[in-house]
Amino acid sequence: MSEQKLAVNEYLKIDSDYLRGTIQEGLDTQVTGSFSDGDQQLIKFHGFYQQDDRDLRNERKEQKLEPLYSFMLRARVPGGICSPAQWLDVDKISSTLTTSNSIRLTTRQTFQYHGIPKRNLKTLIQGLDRAALDSIAACGDVNRNVMCNPNPVESKLHQQAYAVAKELSDHLLPHTRAYAEIWLDEEKLLDTETHEPVYGKTYLPRKFKMAVSVPPDNDVDVYTNDLGFIAIAEQGELIGFNLVAGGGMGSTHGEVETFPRLADDFGFIKTADVIKFAEAVMTVQRDWGNRVNRKRSRLKYTIVDHGYDAFKAEVEKRAGVKFETKRDVVIGDRGDRYGWVEGIDNKWHLTLFIESGRIKDMPGKTLQTGLREIAKIHKGDFRMTSNQNMIIASVAAEDKAEIEGLARKHGLLGEVLSATRGHSIACVALPTCALAMAEAERYFPAFIDHIDALQQKHGISEQAIVVRMTGCPNGCARPFAAEIGLVGKAPGRYNLYLGASFEGTRLNKMHKENIQEAEILSELDGLFGRYAEERDAGETFGNFTVRIGVVKAVLDAAKDFHG
């Protein structure tokens, strides 16, 4: 019997000479603003995607012009921390080398640029390099940006957890020198053959996402990741982690063999064994993962297809260490703490709400200028959050007034947020994302206005509800873990999902398919009315919709999500 034909991307990786492909030739060709089809897959490993302005596609086609191609580049910033000096460089790059003139904070706790012309790519990456930043492995079939809960209250524990997140990110970088050769003009070493000890020549079957959580906060949505580490402390000192694996949000409309999934608990591991277990999980996925059907190639499917017990045994075998019994831990709020929060050593942290993560200057809200001015005087660090917000961290008490004054002056502070708006996120979607079927970022603020109005109407404004919107089912804003999830189906149409837990420990389930705003709001109006009248004390909206039978609880994603 002949072997199954592998997915196209597998052959691209095999033939790429460790991710080099013909990227350099494509970069040198300025006749077109695009790369070849094959190189469009390989450049993801270098941290960027090819896109075009979909709002202008038809107009340019009529003018017999190629689409207005540009690139989205995502930086690798483990734990979301950068210095004020780095932020000033990040800001300058956005203003001089992108057509969007903005910075976007992502749901993976980093920043990305939109609207980069091909001719500016190399200059931009070299600018990041001078700022001690890079975009290596920010995309592609590798371990992507490692998230870490930026808990400002438990600051000492956060510092310990952050060190683990950074070690994971650095240790699991690809070894290929392709990035350095193509973008940083480093000389190719002809006598040294690349060896990828973790990834192998074909890297992973699909993208791999990792997060470190510091309970009780769960802003990193640890259970939605391929691999998660939940920090366990004794007397305020980090002693290890509960390891969870097999989460992932992506699915495909109408294909029931695909589904989002939350990670399984595997047990407790000591801090000293984190790298061993991370490598073990990733190499099992490398060797066992599906390389035939990319829609079934994430770690979540590997665990489902091979079984929890077999996967766990193989991980323990490769790590050379057995899991201990998982430790009891409380998983709580997924939101950010807005405003000032006091940490340790008399330091303060100011969390700023950035709607959909878009940092740009607008009338009455000069957000980009404001962060630039803060960066010029700030002596601590900047921390991006997984909810697309920014923390001005480690501010001395005597510097608070000046920082706050700048934030208020530029519209970064002062707006009264509803509890729900502060817990809600959206992906970029149109006009730049090639996969988007509907709006998200551009429409989301107005949609939340409607949600706020409905909550006020029914007297439930005090209750935070996790609302998330994406333009497609790939799930970048983690909509399937939202109490109210909207997933784009077509322009102006969404699937409505309900029933996830507030804490992010249970998925939601589709309630209505392919509906427009009026029907969505009508449905929520009725449910909010019932919630106001019938909820139990302390009952969250997601739990309420499950209890009254609006949707069934998703306990086993493979069986329940579509069933």
TrEMBL record:
One of its GO terms (cellular component) is sulfite reductase complex (NADPH). GO terms for biological process: cysteine biosynthetic process; hydrogen sulfide biosynthetic process; sulfate assimilation. The lineage of its organism: Bacteria, Pseudomonadati, Pseudomonadota, Gammaproteobacteria, Alteromonadales. Component of the sulfite reductase complex that catalyzes the 6-electron reduction of sulfite to sulfide. This is one of several activities required for the biosynthesis of L-cysteine from sulfate. It catalyses: hydrogen sulfide + 3 NADP(+) + 3 H2O = sulfite + 3 NADPH + 4 H(+). Siroheme binds at C476. Belongs to the nitrite and sulfite reductase 4Fe-4S domain family. Residues 168-322 form the Nitrite/sulphite reductase 4Fe-4S domain. This is Sulfite reductase [NADPH] hemoprotein beta-component. [4Fe-4S] cluster binds at C427, C433, C472, C476. It comes from the Bacteria. Coiled coil: none annotated. Gene3D superfamilies: Sulfite Reductase Hemoprotein, domain 1. Binds 1 siroheme per subunit. Binds 1 [4Fe-4S] cluster per subunit. Alpha(8)-beta(8). The alpha component is a flavoprotein, the beta component is a hemoprotein.
